[in-house]
Design a protein that fits this description.
The complex is a heterodimer. Chain A is mainly alpha-helical. Chain A has a single domain (68-258, 268-290), classed as MetI-like (MetI-like fold), CATH 1.10.3720. Chain A is 71% helix and 2% strand. In chain A, strand 1 (41-43) and strand 2 form a beta hairpin. The longest helix of chain A is centred in the first third of the chain and has 32 residues, at 65-96. In chain B, strands 1, 2, 3, 4, 5, 6, 7, 8 and 9 form a nine-stranded mixed sheet that branches. The N and C termini of chain B lie far apart (67 Å). Helix content of chain B is 49%, strand content 12%. By secondary structure, chain B is of the alpha/beta class. Chain B is globular, with a radius of gyration of 24 Å. The longest helix of chain B has 26 residues, at 2-27. In chain B, 50% of the residues are buried. The chains are: A mainly alpha, B alpha/beta. The A-B interface holds A 42-49, 51, 60, 132-133, 141, 148, 150-153, 238-243, 254-255, 257-261, 264 and B 70, 74, 77, 80-81, 98, 101-105, 190-191, 246, 253-257, 260, 262-263, 266, 268, 397, 399-400, 403, 406-408, 410-411, 413-414, 416, 436, 439-441, 443.
C-alpha cells in the first residue's frame, strides 16, 4: 500500500544528503573527535607543551571522589527534573485540552517560559529564593523554615530542580498538547458511550496513544538535563554548596573553562558522550518496544 | 528600482567611509587591549585609551571588552592558540601562575620596558601591589592595573542602635564577635557580620595579615612545588569560631563571591568584610552612615597585624609581537603609571594607586581626609614591609583551588565536618591539584 518514489539517478540521493552530512560532520563529528583526541593529552592552557598520555586522564578522573559525587548528583537531578517536568506538563496539557473558556490564553501563557534563556531562568528563581532578598525566601523564613541554599545542599538542589523543571515544562506541554489533539475524538467518544470513566479513558486510550510523544520527550528531556542545564546551575548555585549541585556537565565546564584543565575536561565529556549514547540506545531498544505507534 | 538605488548608494557610502577611515589608521600601529571591565570601570578604560591616542599619533590603543575575568583569559588563550592574541590582556590575580608559567606566550613587563628603552624604576611602585606580580628577585612580570584589598565595612547607624561607639570599630576577632552578638540582640537577627569572597578573606588575607604561611616556598612564589599549610591551629581557630557563630547567625555565610555584598548595603549585615573597591556601590546604595576599618586579627597571635594582600587584575603583555608594537605597549604603560593619571584612576575607580608617588601626592592634597575610608586599604597594605607570607600567592590551578577550599569551608559551616577536618581535606585536595598543575608545566 505504501507509495514509493523511484529514483533512477543513483547519485541524486547522495547529492541531496550531502548538505546535511556536511553539517553533521563539521558540527558534530569533528568536535567530538577533537574531544576524544584531547582526552588523551596532557596540555597546559596555552598549548605550549602537549604530551600523549593514553588513559591517564581517565584513570585520574575515576580516582577523583568528586567525580563519583557528580554522578550521584546528576542521577538525582536528572531523574527528578525529567519526572517532574514530564508529569506536570502532561497534567497541564490534559487540562488545557478540555473544552473550557480561554484555552488559547492558557496555552500561550504556558508556552512562554520556553522563550526564557536558561541563565535568565536561573536568575529569576534566584531572585525569589535568595535567602536575604528573595520574596519567597523571606516568606519561608517567617514560617520558621531556615531556608539557606548557600549552605544547605538539599535546599540548593531543590532550587535548581525547580528552575530546570519550570523551564522544560513548556516544551513538554507543547508536544503533549499536540499529541493529545491528534488523538481522534471518535475513539474517546466511543469509550465514553461504553461507560468508561474519564480516568479509565485516559489510562487505556489516551496514554497509550500518546506514548510515542512521551517516548520522544523522554529522550529529549534526558539530553536536556544532561547538557542544557548548566546555565541554570551556573547562575543559581555555581555547583555549590560543597558540590551539592555539581552535575557532570557543570564539572566539565568548571574544570575545563574555569580551571584550564583541558585534558581532564575532555575526558569527562567523552564519558558523558558514552553515557548519553548508551542511555539513548537503551531507550530505543527497550522502551520503544512498549510504545504504540 | 528605488530600493536598488538606495542599496547602491549605501554601499558606496560604506566603501567611502572605509577608505577615509582607513587612511589615517594605516600610519598608526594598533595595540589591542582585551579587558573585563563593565559599567563605570569600562568607561575609565575607554577614556584612558582615548587620552593616550590623543597624546601621540604613532600608536592607537584599541580596548575590547571580552566578558568576565575568566572569559577574557580564555578568549586570550584561545586567540593565542589560533595565532592572533591581543597585545595586552587583563588577567585576574588568580590567573598569575598560569600566565607566568606560559613561557614564550607572554612577555614579562620588565623585559618589555628595558627593550623598548622606556624609563622604568621598579622601586617607584608600591611593593605590596607589584609584589604579587613580580618574581622573587623583584622583576615585574605584569603591570598592576586594578588592585584592591579586603577591608571591614560597618554600619554606623546600626552601631548606634546597639549602643556601640560608631567611631570605634572592632579591631580584633574577639571584638568583632562581641560586637556582632550585641548587634544581633539589637535586632540584626539574621546576620551579625559576614564576609564576601570567603576564601580570599578566611584563608588568603588571614594568612598574610597574621604573617603565617598559606603555603611553603613563600606561598608558591619560589616554585610551583609548594605545599599548602593553612590547616594550622591559628587558621582552624578562626573557622571554628565562625562555625560556632553560624549556628545563631551571629556570623552568616554569604557565598563564595561578592554576590552577598547587597546584604551590607540593604542594612541586613551591619559588619561586612569585602573588597575596598566596594566603596562606589556603598556610596550609591547605602541609606545609612558607614565606616571602614582594617581587617580584624587575633591579638594573641605573634606578628599580627602584618599587611594584607591585593586582589584584582593586572595587564599581561602577550609574546610573539613586533618590536614596534612592543614600543607602543611600553609607552602606554609609562602613560598609565604617570603620577597624576594614577591619582585620577584611583579616585574614579576606588582601586589602589600602584606608585608610591601617586599615593604620597594624593595624601598631601588631602584626598583621604575629605573622603574618609578611602585610605583604609592602603594603610593596611603599607603599614609594614611585606614578608614572604604576605607578598602574595602564586599557586597553580588557583581558580579551582579557591573553589575546593570554599567547598570545605561550606562543609564545616553546615556542620558536616569539624573545622580541623575541613581544612585538612582542603589542604590535601589542594595539594593534589597543585601537583597536577606542576605536571602540566614542568616537562
Amino acid at each position: 500500500m505504501e507509495k514509493r518514489a523511484i529514483y533512477n539517478n543513483k547519485l541524486l540521493p547522495y547529492l541531496l544528503l550531502t548538505p546535511q552530512m556536511i553539517v553533521v560532520l563539521v558540527f558534530f563529528y569533528w568536535p567530538a573527535s577533537q574531544a576524544i583526541y584531547q582526552s588523551f593529552l596532557l596540555e597546559d592552557a596555552f598549548g605550549l607543551r602537549s604530551d600523549f598520555i593514553w588513559f591517564e586522564n581517565f584513570v585520574e578522573l575515576f580516582q577523583d571522589p568528586s567525580y563519583g559525587n557528580a554522578f550521584v548528583v546528576t542521577a538525582i537531578f536528572s531523574t527528578t527534573v525529567a519526572a517532574l517536568s514530564l508529569s506536570s506538563a502532561l497534567l497541564l496539557a490534559v487540562m488545557a485540552d478540555r473544552q473550557i473558556k480561554g484555552t488559547g490564553i492558557y496555552k500561550t501563557l504556558l508556552i512562554w517560559p520556553y522563550a526564557v534563556a536558561p541563565a535568565i531562568a536561573g536568575v529569576l528563581w534566584l531572585f525569589m529564593f535568595q535567602p536575604s532578598l528573595g520574596v519567597v525566601a523571606q516568606a519561608l523564613r517567617k514560617l520558621g523554615i531556615d531556608w539557606n541554599p548557600l549552605l544547605n545542599g538539599n535546599h540548593a538542589m531543590l532550587l535548581v530542580v525547580m528552575a530546570a523543571t519550570w523551564k522544560q515544562i513548556s516544551y513538554n506541554f507543547l508536544f503533549f498538547l499536540a499529541g493529545l489533539q491528534s488523538i481522534p475524538r471518535s475513539v474517546i467518544e466511543a469509550a465514553a458511550i461504553d461507560g468508561a470513566s474519564s480516568t479509565r479513558r485516559f489510562w487505556t486510550i489516551i496514554f497509550p496513544l500518546l506514548s510515542p510523544t512521551a517516548f520522544f520527550l523522554l529522550v529529549v528531556n534526558v539530553v536536556y538535563v544532561f547538557f542544557d542545564t548548566f546555565g541554570i546551575i551556573d547562575s543559581v548555585t555555581g555547583g555549590g554548596p560543597a558540590k551539592a549541585t555539581e552535575t557532570l556537565v557543570y564539572k566539565v565546564f568548571f574544570d575545563g573553562r574555569l580551571g584550564g584543565n583541558l585534558g581532564g575536561s575532555a575526558a569527562q565529556s567523552v564519558v558523558m558522550m558514552v553515557i548519553v549514547i548508551g542511555l539513548t540506545a537503551v531507550q530505543f531498544r527497550y522502551v520503544e518496544r512498549k510504545v504504540h505507534y | 528600482m528605488i530600493s536598488r538605488r538606495i542599496l547602491l548608494s549605501a554601499a558606496a557610502a560604506v566603501a567611502l567611509a572605509g577608505v577615509t577611515g582607513a587612511a589615517p589608521a594605516q600610519a598608526q600601529t594598533e595595540i589591542h587591549w582585551w579587558h573585563a571591565m563593565t559599567g563605570a570601570n569600562n568607561d575609565v578604560i575607554v577614556n584612558l585609551a582615548e587620552e593616550f591616542n590623543k597624546t601621540q599619533t604613532q600608536y592607537k590603543v584599541v580596548p575590547t571588552y571580552k566578558g568576565g575575568y575568566a572569559d577574557t583569559m580564555n578568549a586570550g588563550i584561545a586567540a593565542y592558540r589560533a595565532g592572533n592574541a591581543p597585545h595586552i590582556m587583563q588577567v585576574f590575580e588568580v590567573g598569575t601562575a598560569t600566565m607566568m608559567s606560559a613561557k614564550g606566550a607572554v612577555k614579562p613587563v620588565y623585559v618589555l620596558m628595558t627593550e623598548a628603552g622606556e624609563k622604568f624604576d621598579p622601586k617607584a611602585f608600591l611593593p605590596t601591589v607589584t609584589g604579587y606580580y613580580s618574581t622573587t628577585k623583584g622583576e615585574m612580570l605584569s603591570m598592576p592595573f586594578n588592585s584592591s584589598s579586603m577591608i571591614m565595612w560597618y554600619n554606623k547607624d546600626a552601631f548606634k542602635k546597639a549602643s556601640l561607639d560608631p567611631n570605634k570599630p572592632p579591631k580584633t576577632w574577639p571584638e568583632v564577635f562581641d560586637y556582632a552578638k550585641k548587634l544581633k540582640a539589637a535586632g540584626y537577627s539574621t546576620c551579625g557580620f559576614s564576609t564576601a569572597w570567603i576564601t580570599w578573606g578566611l584563608i588568603e588575607q588571614f594568612s598574610a595579615w597574621h604573617n603565617v604561611p598559606l603555603a611553603t616556598k613563600a606561598n608558591g612564589m619560589e616554585g610551583f612545588d609548594a605545599e599548602l599549610k593553612f590547616n594550622s591551629p591559628l587558621h582552624v581557630r578562626l573557622l571554628n569560631d565562625l562555625v560556632n557563630l553560624q549556628k545563631d547567625k551571629i556570623f552568616d555565610y554569604s557565598g563564595r563571591t561578592n554576590t552577598g555584598e547587597g546584604r551590607f548595603t540593604s542594612g541586613e549585615c551591619p559588619i561586612f568584610m569585602t573588597s575596598s573597591a566596594f566603596r562606589g556601590n556603598v556610596v550609591r546604595n547605602a541609606k545609612f552612615e558607614f565606616g571602614t576599618s582594617t581587617l580584624p586579627y587575633y591579638p594573641d597571635a605573634a606578628g599580627a597585624p602584618q599587611n594584607s594582600i591585593i586582589g584584582g587584575a593586572s595587564l599581561w603583555v602577550m609574546g610573539g609581537k613586533k618590536a614596534e608594537e612592543y614600543k607602543g605597549v611600553a609607552k602606554f604603560f609609562s602613560f598609565l603609571s604617570d603620577t597624576d593619571r594614577q591619582i585620577a584612576i584611583h579616585q574614579s575607580t576606588g582601586y589602589l594607586p600602584i606608585t608610591r608617588a601617586a599615593y604620597d601626592k594624593n595624601k598631601a592634597a588631602g584626598y583621604y581626609e575629605k573622603n574618609p575610608g578611602t585610605e583604609t586599604a592602603l594603610l593596611q597594605m603599607t603599614g609594614k614591609a611585606p614578608t614572604e607570607n604576605s607578598r602574595g600567592l602564586r599557586l597553580g590551578n588557583m581558580v579551582q583551588l579557591r573553589d575546593v577550599w570554599a567547598e570545605e569551608v561550606e562543609e564545616a559551616l553546615a556542620g558536616k565536618k569539624t573545622a580541623q577536618a575541613a581544612y585538612d581535606d582542603a589542604v590535601k585536595r589542594g595539594n593534589t591539584m597543585m601537583r597536577q598543575f606542576e605536571r602540566t608545566i614542568s616537562r
